[in-house]
TrEMBL record:
Family under the similarity heading: Belongs to the TonB-dependent receptor family.
Name of this protein: TonB-dependent receptor
InterPro entries per record: Beta-barrel_TonB, Beta-barrel_TonB_sf, CarboxyPept-like_regulatory, Plug_dom, Plug_dom_sf, TonB-dep_rcpt-like
GO BP: siderophore transmembrane transport
GO molecular function: siderophore uptake transmembrane transporter activity
Organism, as annotated: Arsenicibacter rosenii
Classification of source organism: Bacteria, Pseudomonadati, Bacteroidota, Cytophagia, Cytophagales
Length: 930
C-alpha cells in the first residue's frame, strides 16, 4: 500500500499548491441575469450558463436567476443551454448589464452535443458513429429505479440482470454476465475492479443525484478508447460542483418479491445525499453518499442439466440429477451395478445471503487556477454485496473498490492520473461452498465421519453398498433408500451445525474452502491535447496517450503470487484528424491508435469516417472501425491445480519451466490412442497395442494467448423528417477472430516426440501408467465469424409537450465455417424493441414517463452451465413513473415501478428470475446559490 499512500500525498500536495497558487484572477466582476421560458415567462431552474472561452459556468436557481464571476471589463459572451430548449449565445457589453434571456423550446435533438463519439464536443447529428445519450432530464425522469437501469431503453443495448445490485451492459452481441469486452468510464476513470477485468454494473459507480449525463458508443471503439472498448463504451459524467451547487437529498423506499413463492414481500431502500459549494468562483467542493439495500432475487431453477442422461429420463427422480441452481450435485460417478449417481446438492437459497447492499462515498475538490485551467482531486469509496453469475454463482460479499483521481484540465487539454484498489473481503464461490459443505459430514460404513479428502469416495461407497443390498437392514435396488443411507449425517440448512460450517468455509480462501481473495490494484495515467487552435483551425487534430500498471495479488489462491505481486503494464497512443469540406457539408475523420501490453505484440487500430450533411436536417454517416480486447488478468495468469487438471493462463511467463506448451499431446488424440489401445490390448498384448496406436497421438501446438480482434463497417442516418419527428438509423457488419478459449492438453513425463519426429513410445507409456498431468490452457481460436445488425429509432415531440419514442434492434450472427467450440457465445436476441412515452407537465407540476421493453427468446451459452446452451424465454417489461413537483419546497415526489406487471423473467441462464419493484421517492434539491 506504499504506492497508494504516496499517491494520496501527491494528490494533496497538488491541491495545496492550487490553493496557495500565486496565479490570481484579474479584477473579478459578476454577470447577472434571468432565464425564462417564453410560454408564460416562467423561470427556468437549472439552465446552464457558461462564459464562452473559459471554464467558468453556473446554473440558474429556483427563480431562474444566475450570478457568474468574470474577469476584466468585457465585452462578454454567454452561452445558455438547457435540455429541451435551443442553445442561445448572448453578448453582454459590461458587468453591470443584467440580461433577461428567453429560451426557445426545441422540437428535436438536432442541437444536442455529445463528446463520446470523437472525444471532442460535436453536434449529435454530425457524430461519425452511432451514439446514444441520456441527459440530466432523462436521468431525472427515467421510470426505472435508477438511471443505470434506464439505459436499457436505449436502442441497441443488452442488459443482463444477475441480481438487485448487479446489472451488466453490452452492445452488438457476444454478451456475458461479466463483460470484459465493454468499457465503462466515469469522469474518464475506468470503473472496473482490476482483478475482475470488467465493471460490476453500477455497483461502484454514480448515484442518481450526481449523474449529469450518459453517452453510449456501441461497437468497436478501440481506436479512441483502447483495448477494453471492443464492443463499445459507456461514458458517464458526474455533476460539476461549480455548476450544480447546494444540497440534494433522495429518500426512496419500495417493495419487491410480490407474489414470489420463495419468500415474502421485502422492503427496498435507496437513499442518497449530495452537497456542493463554490467559493469565490475559484474553489468548489462536492460530497456524495448513497446507500441502497434490499432482498435480492432468488435463483431457483432446478432443471436437471445432466447431459449424459437422456432428456426423457432427467428430472428430480434421476439418480444423477444436476440441477441448475443446486450445488454439490455436479459431483457424479458411474458405479458398477448401480449406474450413474450424483451427490445430493444444496439449493443456492440455502448457501448465499440474498440481503444485499451498495454503499457509495465520493468527495471532490475543484480549483480553478485560471479561467481556463482547473485542477481536480476526487476520491471514491464503494462497498457492497451482489450475487453474480460467472463460471459459478458468486457472492461478491462486502467487496470494496477505492479510487483516487488527480486531474489538470484546460480548454484544449487534460492530464489525468487515477488508481483503483479492490479488496474481495468476505466474497465466496457459492458452488464451491455447496461442494465443500458436502465433504464435512460423510460417514464411513462404521458411522465415523471421514476427512474431507475422502468424503466423496466414501459417499459413493455407501450409496453402492446400500443399492446392491450389502448393508444389513437396508433394502437394495432402491435409489431413494440408497441416497438416504449415503446422506446419513447430512448437515441440514438452517441448523447451527450447517451455519457453522458455512461460515468457516466462506472464510477459507483457495481450493480447501469457498472464500475468494483478490487485492488487485492498478494505476493509470492518460492525457489528451487538441491542436486545432494551434493549427489556426485548418483541421481538427487530437492527440493523446495513456500508461497503465497492474499489480495482482491473490496470495496463491488463484495466481502464482505467494512470493509477491504479479505486475505488468500496457500503454497506448492515438491521433485523430478531422477536416470539413464542401462548405462544411462533408466532415472526414481519420483516427489511429497503437497499443502495447507487456505480454503481447503491439497492436494498431485505425478508424475512418465520413459525415455528409445534405441539409441542416439530414445527415448521413459511414465508418470503418477496428477493435481488440486484451486478455483479462485471469486469462493471462491463472495457475490453479484442481487435482486432475491444472488451469493455466496463457501469458508466456505464466508457464515458464512447466514444459506444457512445448511438450504435450492434444486431448482428442489421447482419446483416440486410448480407444485404439483398448481395442487391441487383448488381441496382441500391451506392448504391441501401444506400438500399433502410438502414431494416433498428436503433439499439441497451442499458441500463447493474444488479444481478440474485430473489424467493423457501419452506415447510418440521423435527421428530422418533419418539424417534430426525428429519426436515427444504422446498419453494421463486423468480422471477429482470435476469440479467447480454453483447450485441454496432456503433458507426459517423457518427451512427446522421439528422435524420428514421431510420437515417443515412452510418452505413450506415460499416458497408460498415469505419469501425466492434464492442463486447461487459455489460448485463441483461429476461426473467423461475422455478425451484423441494424437499429432504428424514432422520436416524436408533439406541440402539446408529449414525447414519444420507439426503437428496434435486429442482430444476426453467422458462425460461417468455425468450430462452435472455438467461438464466444453471441448471447443476444435477434429482435428487441423499446417504446417510451412521457410528458413533463401533463398537469400543472405533474409529469409521467412509461417505457416498454420487449425481446424475443434466444439461446444463452455460458461457462456457468459448462457451455451447454440454455434457453432464455422471450419477455417484456413495463416501467412507469408519475412525478409531482412542489416548487415551494424544491421537492419532487415520484411514484414508480420497474416491471410493473410483475412478470418474473430470467435474463441469463442460471441467473435469478427478476420480478417487479415498486417504489416511492422524495427528492429535495435546494438548487444553486442565488
Amino acid at each position: 500500500m506504499t504506492f497508494y499512500t504516496s499517491a494520496a500525498r501527491a494528490a494533496w500536495l497538488l491541491l495545496l499548491l492550487c490553493l496557495f497558487c500565486t496565479i490570481t484572477y484579474a479584477q473579478s466582476v459578476q454577470l447577472t441575469g434571468t432565464v425564462l421560458d417564453p410560454a408564460g415567462n416562467q423561470p427556468l431552474t437549472g439552465a446552464a450558463i457558461t462564459l464562452k472561452g473559459t471554464k467558468s459556468g453556473t446554473t440558474t436557481d429556483a427563480s431562474g436567476a444566475f450570478k457568474l464571476a468574470a474577469d476584466g471589463k468585457g465585452p462578454y459572451t454567454l452561452v445558455i443551454s438547457m435540455i429541451g430548449y435551443e442553445t442561445q449565445v448572448v453578448p453582454v457589453k459590461a458587468a453591470g448589464e443584467a440580461v433577461s434571456i428567453r429560451l426557445k423550446q426545441a422540437t428535436s435533438t438536432l442541437q444536442e452535443v455529445v463528446v463520446g463519439a470523437s472525444r471532442v464536443e460535436e453536434k449529435l447529428v454530425r457524430a461519425p458513429v452511432t451514439i446514444e445519450k441520456m441527459d440530466a432530464r432523462s436521468i431525472k425522469e427515467t421510470p426505472s429505479p435508477s438511471f443505470y437501469e434506464g439505459i436499457n431503453n436505449l436502442k441497441g443495448v443488452d442488459m443482463v440482470t444477475s441480481g438487485l445490485t448487479y446489472r451488466q451492459i453490452n452492445t452488438r452481441g457476444f454478451a456475458s454476465t461479466g463483460n470484459s469486452r465493454f468499457l465503462q468510464l466515469i469522469d474518464g476513470v475506468d470503473n472496473q475492479p482490476a482483478g475482475f477485468g470488467f465493471s460490476v454494473g453500477n455497483m461502484f459507480g454514480l448515484s442518481d443525484l450526481d449523474a449529469e449525463r450518459v453517452e453510449l458508443v456501441p461497437g468497436a471503439a478501440s481506436a479512441l478508447y483502447g483495448p477494453a472498448a471492443f464492443n463499445g463504451a459507456l461514458l458517464m459524467t458526474s455533476k460539476d460542483p461549480f455548476k450544480y451547487q447546494g444540497l440534494s437529498v433522495q429518500a426512496k423506499a419500495g417493495v419487491n418479491h410480490l407474489g414470489d413463492p420463495n419468500t415474502n414481500a421485502a422492503m427496498y431502500n435507496d437513499h442518497a445525499i449530495r452537497y456542493a459549494k463554490a467559493f469565490s468562483g475559484k474553489l468548489a467542493i462536492k460530497l456524495n453518499a448513497a446507500y441502497m439495500w434490499g432482498l435480492d432475487w432468488y435463483a431457483t431453477d432446478y432443471t436437471d442439466v445432466n447431459q449424459t442422461t437422456p432428456v426423457e429420463q432427467r428430472g428430480s427422480k434421476n439418480p444423477a440429477a444436476n440441477a441448475v441452481n443446486s450445488y454439490g450435485d455436479e459431483v457424479v460417478r458411474t458405479l458398477t451395478g448401480v449406474g450413474q449417481v450424483s451427490r445430493t446438492g444444496y439449493k443456492e437459497l440455502d448457501l448465499t445471503d440474498y440481503n444485499v447492499y451498495s454503499l457509495k462515498l465520493n468527495g471532490a475538490l475543484h480549483y480553478r487556477i485560471t479561467p481556463k485551467l482547473e485542477a481536480i482531486y476526487a476520491a471514491n469509496f464503494a462497498k457492497g454485496t451482489a450475487n453474480y453469475t460467472g463460471s459459478n454463482r458468486f457472492s461478491v460479499n462486502g467487496f470494496s473498490l477505492m479510487q483516487h483521481r488527480v486531474e489538470l484540465k484546460g480548454s484544449d487539454f487534460f492530464v489525468r492520473w487515477y488508481s483503483n484498489a479492490e479488496d474481495s473481503h468476505d466474497s465466496f464461490n457459492t458452488r464451491s461452498l455447496g461442494q465443500q459443505i458436502n465433504r464435512t459430514w460423510v460417514r464411513d460404513l462404521n458411522g465415523s465421519v471421514v476427512t474431507p479428502d475422502k468424503a466423496d469416495d466414501m459417499w459413493f461407497t455407501r450409496y453402492s453398498a446400500a443399492y446392491t443390498g450389502t448393508v444389513p437392514n437396508v433394502a437394495g435396488n432402491d435409489h431413494t433408500v440408497a441416497r438416504a443411507f449415503a446422506d446419513q449425517g447430512r448437515l441440514l440448512p438452517g441448523t447451527a451445525e450447517f451455519n457453522a460450517q458455512k461460515q468457516r468455509l466462506e472464510g477459507i480462501q483457495g481450493l480447501n474452502g469457498a472464500g475468494i481473495l483478490s487485492q488487485t490494484s492498478m494505476w493509470h495515467t492518460d492525457g489528451q491535447y487538441n491542436l486545432t487552435s494551434a493549427l489556426n483551425n485548418k483541421a481538427e487534430v487530437l492527440v493523446g496517450g495513456n500508461f497503465r500498471q497492474y499489480s495482482l495479488f491473490t496470495n496463491g489462491t488463484l495466481f502464482d503470487d505467494k512470493g509477491g505481486r504479479i505486475k505488468y503494464y500496457e500503454f497506448g497512443a492515438f491521433m485523430q484528424v478531422s477536416k470539413s469540406l464542401l462548405a462544411d457539408r462533408l466532415k472526414l475523420t481519420v483516427s489511429g491508435r497503437f497499443d502495447k501490453n507487456k505480454n503481447f505484440a503491439g497492436y494498431f487500430t485505425p478508424r475512418a469516417s465520413a459525415v455528409y450533411s445534405v441539409t441542416d436536417r439530414h445527415h448521413f454517416r459511414a465508418s470503418y472501425q477496428t477493435g481488440f480486447r486484451n486478455p483479462t488478468p485471469s486469462d493471462q495468469f491463472i495457475k490453479l491445480n484442481v487435482g486432475p487438471i491444472t488451469i493455466l493462463g496463457g501469458a508466456p511467463g505464466n508457464s515458464a519451466g512447466m514444459n506444457v506448451y512445448e511438450n504435450s499431446f492434444t486431448s482428442a488424440s489421447v482419446n483416440q490412442f486410448g480407444a485404439g489401445f483398448g481395442a487391441d490390448v487383448n488381441k496382441v498384448g500391451p506392448q504391441q497395442a501401444l506400438l500399433n496406436n502410438k502414431d494416433k497421438l498428436q503433439k499439441s501446438n497451442v499458441p500463447y494467448i493474444a488479444p481478440e480482434r474485430v473489424n467493423s463497417m457501419e452506415v447510418g442516418y440521423r435527421g428530422l423528417l418533419t418539424g417534430n419527428l426525428s429519426v436515427d438509423a444504422n446498419y453494421y457488419y463486423g468480422m471477429y477472430d482470435n476469440f479467447i478459449l480454453n483447450t485441454v492438453v496432456l503433458r507426459p513425463n517423457s518427451p512427446v516426440l522421439g528422435a524420428d519426429g514421431k510420437p515417443n513410445p515412452a510418452a505413450a507409456q506415460d499416458l497408460l501408467s498415469g505419469r501425466v498431468q492434464a492442463f486447461q490452457l487459455y489460448t485463441n481460436a483461429p476461426d473467423r465469424v461475422s455478425a451484423q445488425g441494424a437499429t432504428l429509432g424514432l422520436t416524436y415531440r408533439t406541440n402539446s409537450g408529449y414525447q414519444i419514442g420507439a426503437n428496434g434492434t435486429w442482430s444476426s450472427f453467422d458462425i460461417r465455417n468455425a468450430n462452435p467450440n472455438n467461438v464466444a457465445a453471441f448471447n443476444t436476441p435477434r429482435l428487441k424493441s423499446n417504446v417510451t412515452i412521457g410528458h413533463r407537465n401533463v398537469l400543472p407540476n405533474v409529469g409521467f414517463n412509461v417505457a416498454w421493453h420487449w425481446q424475443e427468446s434466444f439461446s444463452w451459452v455460458g461457462s456457468f452451465n459448462s457451455l451447454i446452451p440454455g434457453q432464455v424465454p422471450a419477455y417484456h417489461l413495463l416501467d412507469a413513473q408519475v412525478s409531482y413537483r412542489m416548487p415551494a419546497t424544491k421537492t419532487v415526489l415520484k411514484l414508480g415501478a420497474s416491471n410493473l406487471t410483475n412478470r418474473y423473467v430470467v435474463q441469463a441462464y442460471g441467473s435469478p428470475a427478476v420480478g417487479g419493484l415498486y417504489y416511492l421517492s422524495l427528492v429535495f434539491d435546494a438548487g444553486l446559490q442565488k
